[in-house]
Specification:
- It is built from one helix and 13 strands, in the order ββββββββββαβββ.
- The chain is mainly beta.
- Strands 1, 2, 3, 4, 5, 6, 7, 8, 9, 10, 11, 12 and 13 form a 13-stranded mixed sheet that branches.
Length: 183
């Protein structure tokens, strides 16, 4: 699992050093993501622990995200958010920023948050959306990886593999640059 380095959007850099990496590993239709945040933990705003479960608005504070779409040119995708609090969100979109009629997934991810001396690690394990169909068709997925990091003073920075716009926009299809083959 070679980690991928996320870059901060130039419009909102953090005042103190921060680095964000994510490693991915797939076993069948299950995708494991391991997020590694390197920063002085005292300078990061960590959401307080909550009972595990779905919650909205996680992106307004420190959280880690993935945007997953079939790699067949279709406009639909699934957004996953994971908070260090233990809460998570999963939304289905029919097209860019247009929620699908059946917009929420019901399967809870396996989620583990681990504070570290030099930051934190968050591990999330999910079932890939439309996995059976994608594997059967041999299509695979396009994935956008991102994170929102809030500092103790309330400043937000936005991290991604690729920033396709002049403002942070994780939903933009051109930001979903990682290709994950079906095989």
């Amino acid at each position: 699992m070679t980690p991928l380095e996320l870059t901060c959007h130039p419009a909102c850099p953090p005042a103190r050093p921060v680095a964000v990496q994510v490693g991915l590993q797939r076993s069948g239709t299950v995708l494991t993501l391991v997020w590694r945040l390197r920063a002085d933990p005292a300078h990061i705003a960590w959401p307080p622990a909550q009972p595990p479960g779905p919650a909205d608005g996680l992106w307004q504070h420190t959280c880690f995200e993935a945007f997953v779409r079939r790699d067949d040119g279709s406009p639909g995708y699934t957004e996953f958010n994971w908070s260090p609090s233990g809460q998570w969100a999963c939304y289905r979109f029919a097209a860019e920023r247009r929620r699908a009629e059946q917009d929420e997934a019901t399967t809870a991810p396996l989620l583990r948050f681990q504070p570290l001396v030099d930051g934190a690690q968050l591990t999330a394990q999910i079932e890939l959306p439309d996995a059976g169909r994608a594997l059967e068709d041999g299509i695979g997925w396009r994935i956008g990886l991102s994170a929102v990091i809030e500092t103790a003073d309330g400043q937000l920075s936005y991290w991604a593999l690729h920033h396709p716009a002049d403002r942070p926009d994780f939903h933009h299809p051109a930001g979903h640059v990682l290709h994950w083959p079906a095989e």
